[in-house]
Design brief:
9 helices, single chain, alpha/beta, 10 strands, ATP-binding, about 25% strand
Amino acid sequence: MDGAGSVQKMSGSVVGAQRLGKTFGDGSVVALEDATFDIRPGSFVSLVGPSGCGKSTMLRLIAGLIGKSSGELMVHGKSVEGPRTDVGMMFQKATLLDWRTAIENVLLPTEVSRTVTKADRKHAADLLRMVGLKDFLFAYPSQLSGGMQQRVALARLLQTGVDLLLLDEPFGALDEFTRERLNVELMRIVTELKSTTLFVTHNIAEAIFLADQVFVMTPRPGRIAQIVEVPFDRPRPLSIQTSPEFNALVAEVRDILGEDH
């Protein structure tokens, strides 16, 4: 991309990066290098690649949890200079507070910023119903399965009201059946809310099933080897994973990853 064109394009993106890089320590560990991309409003982007290729680093840069070493990074048209309140992040572990009920955990982001209102409580309850936990509003984490805990964490993320969601392998520790069900729920919810979503995974089929675009990463130093467009409308049924078109995309991504090993 040239200078003027890239600046104009980034201004219309939720997230835009030009030659973004991140090194750690004395600069000898290059986690991310020369990453250039634009993420459209309401789109779902999956990041897939080998361990240590910079996927999680990219999410942390976008959230402002760590600073960039080079390049340009903008979120909602503004340069990322530190932690942002307009970005929500979800990790592999639910990290719920054991002494708080499901609805109390969901309300935590609101409590941190201001006094919780009756409307906030209703919204939290509605979110728990949305993620399929209408009968578990007052259950404690110890009374919930791993998949149910992740549903609470997702509701807590949505409670923040932000429209940019960063999910770092949120379902990686779950069994395959639970993971598939949560992928369907996640796709339905973010499509309904028109949220812009970045999702890190090691699972190629999961990446394609969820996304409009798949960023295929190289081994460290992490670069975006290729951006693969996914042509299926969202939301999608699980059965699409048996289609020849879907499996052709899986093979394409696998080939790209293979070329970079």
